[in-house]
Design brief:
Elements (H helix, E strand, L loop, with lengths): L16 H12 L4 E5 L4 E4 L1 H7 L11 H5 L1 H15 L4 E6 L9 E10 L5 E10 L1 H23 L4 E5 L4 E4 L1 H7 L3 H4 L4 H5 L1 H15 L4 E7 L7 E11 L5 E10 L1 H15 L9 H13 L6 E9 L1 H8 L1 H18 L5 E6 L2 E7 L3 H18 L10 E9 L6 H17 L4 E4 L11
Parallel strand pairs: 14-15
Antiparallel strand pairs: 1-2, 1-5, 3-4, 4-5, 6-7, 6-10, 8-9, 9-10, 11-13, 11-14, 12-13
Helix pairs in contact: 12-13, 13-14
């Protein structure tokens, strides 16, 4: 039941032209403006306030804020009103529930109304719609909370360092790895936290990131919490609003399983699956590179073909034949230097690419390889004797093209077979029938 006008006297409108002008000015300002007396009753409001309150003016004037909008609204406003009546300007925010389904957030500024003598006779309120800003802030805060939860719970160590390499943020995974608390880490330099040896590994990547470059560092960490693991750290520059690098984010991921799988795949491509020497494809790459640099270092290509290998397979089975191939591959690797290359060309054929000083050195190495195969193919119990026919050619003396070098060595190998097997032959020593057989 509404109170009578005797309980809530409505003050008369300002009679002066000046007062009328102020009224028109207040109405022209598209913001809800109200004036409240010492008893917290609304004694003036402009047109936008009436629209904002969604009530006729006569239902507003002479009533307190609690009577107009409810006790919850007054609870939100009371401290601001008290501050204004004490002489301070202030503000508060609340959700305008009186708007029902269209409820919006508002910021209400409250400031004192002083008379000519400086005494505070009331307070003014001006309401500003901040609904969209509040929603944006709430969304931003929600996103920030999600990001904080993500960074805290992600199992990968995450850090942020400033331009002086001082830690400004670490997540839980990083504290677990270092065995130190946030309080022990924040404000200290990476060098101090991780030690000079580890810092010397990472420093070049941090410096590249401070130069604006994203970079990565993959390494095998032997003292990791779960044992030796391959880890990859990404260094991401943090750009400020002016495009300058303010610091560096680092994210360290365990790539052990991926790296091991990649290495296995690469090894399967680079290596012969049975003998573990280089594959045919890899050997061709080595030959290409060696011939290209042969002007500085002479190289010899040795084509090794086993004699009597088929008889081993026929008499003792392919398993024994495989063991023999593995033994030959090992013998050839042991017969050359570590930086020379041994590969399986196919079946029972092998290639050896080695540095040689001259033709005489090539011949000596060929004989050495022949002897190594003999020892590697020592007579199997009750099985046939296996030897090798070896043909070789030198670059750049015999050929300056990779395929030509391979063809000369292959032709020489077939010439060695035709001349009785178990021997070596230089590509320049064969006759005109090198293509036969």
């Amino acid at each position: 039941m509404q109170s009578s006008t005797l309980d809530h006297p409505v003050p008369p409108a300002l009679p002066s032209e000046a007062g009328a002008g102020i009224d028109r000015l207040a109405d022209a300002i598209d913001l809800p403006i109200g004036r409240w007396d010492a008893r917290h009753r609304l004694v003036y409001c402009n047109g936008p306030y009436v629209v904002w309150a969604q009530r006729p003016r006569e239902a507003l004037l002479g009533r307190s804020l609690a009577e107009i909008f409810g006790d919850t609204a007054w609870a939100a406003a009371s401290n601001a009103f008290a501050a204004a009546f004490s002489g301070r300007s202030t503000s508060y925010e609340r959700r305008l529930t009186h708007l029902g389904a269209s409820a919006r957030w508002a910021r209400i500024q409250v400031f004192p109304d002083r008379n000519d003598a400086g005494r505070i006779e009331g307070v003014y309120t001006v309401a500003f719609d901040i609904h969209d800003d509040v929603l944006r802030n709430e969304a931003a805060n929600a996103a920030r909370r999600r990001l904080q939860r993500f960074t805290e719970n992600i199992p990968c160590p995450l850090t942020y360092v400033d331009r002086h390499f001082v830690l400004r943020f670490v997540n839980k995974a990083y504290t677990d790895v270092t065995g130190q608390t946030r309080e022990q880490l924040i404000g200290r330099s990476i060098a101090e936290v991780r030690g000079p040896a580890r810092w010397s590994e990472h420093q070049p990547y941090y410096e590249r990131a401070l130069g604006g470059e994203q970079c990565q560092y993959t390494r095998l960490v032997k003292d990791y919490v779960d044992g030796p693991r391959w880890l990859r750290t990404t260094y991401e520059p943090d750009l400020d609003d002016d495009g300058l690098v303010a610091g560096v984010y680092t994210l360290t991921m365990d790539v052990h399983d991926l790296t091991v799988a990649q290495e296995r795949l690469l090894r399967r491509v680079e290596r012969d699956e049975l003998t573990d020497v280089f594959s045919r494809r890899t050997m061709m790459d080595h030959i290409d590179a060696a011939v290209a640099g042969a002007s500085q270092q002479s190289v010899g290509l040795f084509f090794v073909d086993l004699d009597g290998f088929k008889a081993v397979n026929d008499a003792q089975g392919h398993a024994q034949g495989d063991r023999l191939l593995i033994g030959v591959a090992r013998a050839l690797q042991q017969a050359v230097r570590a930086d020379d290359a041994v590969g399986r060309f196919g079946g029972d054929e092998f290639l050896v690419l080695a540095k040689v000083r001259d033709a005489a050195g090539g011949h000596v190495l060929a004989q050495h390889l022949l002897e190594a195969v003999r020892e590697g193919c020592a007579p199997l119990a009750g099985g046939p004797q296996v030897t090798a026919s070896i043909g070789y050619a030198l670059a750049p003396a015999d050929a300056k093209q990779p395929m030509r070098l391979l063809q000369l060595a292959d032709d020489a190998m077939y010439a060695a077979k035709r001349q009785g097997k178990n021997r070596v032959m230089h590509g320049t020593d064969i006759g005109p029938d090198i293509g036969a057989g």
